[in-house]
Each structure stands twice: as structure tokens, then as C-alpha cells.
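Subject: Sanity check before I submit

Could someone independently write out the C-alpha cells for this chain? I want to compare against mine line by line before I put it in a report. The sequence has 344 residues.
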Amino acid sequence: MYYFTSDYTTGCTPEILEVLGATNLEETAGYGEDAYCEAARALIQKECGRPDADVYFMMAGTQTNLTIISASLRPFHGVYGTARSHINTHEAGAIERSGHKVLVVPDEDGKITAAQIAAEQEKYLHDPSREHIVMPKMVYISQPTETGTLYSKKELEDLYAVCRQYNLYLFIDGARLGYGLTSPACDFTMQDIANNCDVFYIGGTKCGMLFGEAAVILNPAIKEDFIPLMKQCGSVLAKGRLLGIQFEAMFTNGLYYRICKQGIDTAMQIKAVLKECGFEFLTDSPTNQQFIIITKEMYEKINSHFKLGLYENLPDGRVAARICTSWSTSQDAVDKLCKFIKEL
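---
Independent answer below. Compare away.
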């Protein structure tokens, strides 16, 4: 059986496994205060072109989102996100449990636009009862989005400009950032990301690491007392060097980009065959997630040989299924899936 359900169905890239084994019995300081974490921080600062950035390592995406949002907002603040945003759909109300409401705005191809935020803020500012309702303070987006689409550099610049205009933080969830940066549709760099938000994180769990996310904090207001907040959220790993070792490997000799491109190359092969065979897509994704609209019967038929992700039940009785590739997707798996699709 071949799995195309997600980009975390396998362990980690061999380069990371090798360095973890080689350093296994080495004794270091705990809680991220070791030389490996320091080296990884320096590499990420260099990659971002931001020596002023504070870099913290955490274990998982939901944990990172919760920690960053909790550190950024006061008790009466809310955060804008799309209906499909990870914080609204896949975190079991973690943000609301922390006391912060997710303020849902409609998405356009998975994205929030600068014009939308401006309109929402004007509506809030001119509400005579605004002192009695949740105050928006942050905009949360994912790059790539939950449906695989990408914000262009111009869209990010426009969105960040509006956030600054209305004194909102812009937080970019980069759980799959490596696949965005290696997409053929990408027109931005890691430095562009760092220069057009207040805080973001670089995903490792879905991009070839065993686990790990690197929070990159640019805005001084969010930096203050971040470590105690991490402790409260259970985000500080005693054996923090396990995160530093992995991120140091990822940002040495371009490994992060090299392995993520494998996920993009295989996804584009599959997408080409799907288009050739006349499949309908939920979105035009240029990244490692492809969403096809098919009947339930066809979903079951494909799923009996190649595991797909059931993304959404549609009003007409069909389903949107996710085909997700990764850094570890083999050419053999892609060839067999494409052959199966052509023979349907």
C-alpha cells in the first residue's frame, strides 16, 4: 500500500538520522541552551537575513501556533483566520481555550487579502459597541495555505502593510514552508517572508525532520518573556538539542530546500496526469498538496490501492480528496499511482 494521505507518514531524512546517531551519547546542556541549538539559530538568522530575529525551537505545529498566539495577544484580543485555517479546524479549539477568539473571514482560494482585513478593521473601528466585543490584534495565514495555494510576494507585502496600518500582528504558519519555497510558482525567498511579518515559523515535521518547528520572532513586542510563555504551553523540550541538531542539518548545504523539492517534483508529475485525464481540482495548487473532486465510489476505488486523504464532503455528494506528496515520496509510488489513474 502506498500512502498519499500526508507529508508526515515516514520518519526523517537519512542525513538527520545519521547526525542524531553520531551525537547520541554526547552530553550537552538542556532546554535548548546547547551548542547545536545556538548553531541552528545562527543558520536560520542568516537564511532570513535577520540577525535581530529571536529563534525558538518547538516540537509540533499546534503547540507552536498556541505558544505564539498566547505570547502575542492580551486576554481580550482575537486573531483573524480563514474558515479552513489550521487554528480554526485542526486544533480542537486550542486557541479559544487560551481565551482568544478566532475571527473567521472568508477565503479567496485559501487566502486572506489585504482588502478584506482593511474592510474588517474599518467595520470594527466604526462599531459603536467595539469596546464590548473582541478586539482584533493578529492576522494568521499559512504559507502554503491549507489548500496548497501560495501567497505571492506582492500579496504578502500588501497584507503586511495593512496589518501595520491597523496595528495588527501578521503571523505566518510555515508548517509546509519548504514546499512553498521550492514550488515553481514561488516568487519569494525566506528573507521576503522574514521581512513581511511579525512572526513566522519554519516547519520541520512535514518537511523531513522527525519533529520540530522553528519560531522566528521579528517584532520586539512579541519577544518579551517568550520563554516563560513557552514553559506554560509545554513547549520547552528538556532534550532541546534534538531540535537544534535537526535544524542545523536542515540549513547546512541546502538540505531543507533539496529534500522539499522532491515533494514538489512528484506532486507536479501527478498533477499533470490528473489534468491529462480530465480530473477536476478544488484549487489550482502549485505545491505538494493536490485536491481532486471525485465521486465517493471513485475515491473508494483509488483508496483501496493508494491511500488518499478525505478532505471534504461536497454538497453535490462528491468528495474532495487530497493527494499529498513529501520529501520521501518515491518515483516508484508516483509511477504506479499515475498508471492506476490512467487506467480508471
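---
OP: Matches mine. For the report I'm noting this point. The chain has a mean pLDDT of 97.
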